[in-house]
Amino acid sequence: MERQNDQMTSKEDVFTDEEKIIIHSAIIQSSALAIVNSEGNIQRANHAFHSMFNPASTGDDLWHIDNIIDEYAAQDFFNLVRDVISMEHCWSGQIRLRNTLHQSFHAFLHISKAPEKGLYVVQVNPVDHVNEYERLRLMAYTDELTGIPNFRCFHERMKQLLEGRDAALHFGVLFIDIDHFKALNDRYGHVVGDKLLKACVYKLMKNIYPDGEVFRKSGDEFLIIVQQPAQIEGLIERLYAAFMQQVYVDGEGIPMQVSIGASLYPIDGQDTESLIHTADAAMYQAKRQKEMPSP
């Protein structure tokens, strides 16, 4: 595997005292654990981690964290997550992983800052190892296809913002719809359609963090919460520019564009439904303008 680190070891006592405190106080003992640096290189890992990802190895041949990701954004995964952690302090989600034998499995992945500056704690629990309450909780707030927060999670996040907001403060909501997605689905099939949705999420994540949080509403619709309204205009321009580039699925370039609408709290509404409705209407207006013939 690429980017191996010769200094890594599988012994349980490789963690510092501070690392052991955060690990044992925050997670279950059966978790596969690793410490990675700011570049995503795995520095230390426990026996469970080695057994999970290096089942045929007895040495210290670990690798970069991206190499355990069996997903559409594997090569940029840690960079994206690191940006999220800088804003949210941790990242959690259900994702498909792989080991050195290229065996894939679904797991709950949790990454947070370690006490030592520049290091991160990675916790992996295969789906069948997670306790029932935690499994149901994560499933309830995670979109099964893309692994990002779902519409239910969006409502919870909005509730937190609205209940904690001072009337003088503002935030924005973006409503994003993939143009002609049904036609793309019909042309390429549902398997490719699912991959296109994942590619869309990748583009969104790559271009909004750390300025916004992305959620899947349903189908080909997504919502983004932007806590700094001054960032909205530039963020929309950045997203439109990103979707001018083709999306590659299985080596084939596929044109994929989006329409975006925005609403601002409290100007366009003071509750979740009003803000969604206004952003949705603005999105359809943007879609109609693109479809109007040029004079």
From TrEMBL:
Coiled coil: none
InterPro entries: Biofilm_reg_signaling, GGDEF_dom, Nucleotide_cyclase, Rev_trsase/Diguanyl_cyclase
Domain of life (superkingdom): Bacteria
Record-linked SMART domains: GGDEF
All copies of domain GGDEF, residue ranges: 169-295
PROSITE patterns recorded: GGDEF
CDD domains linked: GGDEF (cd01949)
Pfam families in the cross-refs: GGDEF
PANTHER family per the UniProt record, alphabetical: BIOFILM ARCHITECTURE MAINTENANCE PROTEIN MBAA, DIGUANYLATE CYCLASE DGCP
Name assigned to this protein: Diguanylate cyclase (GGDEF) domain-containing protein
Organism: Paenibacillus aquistagni
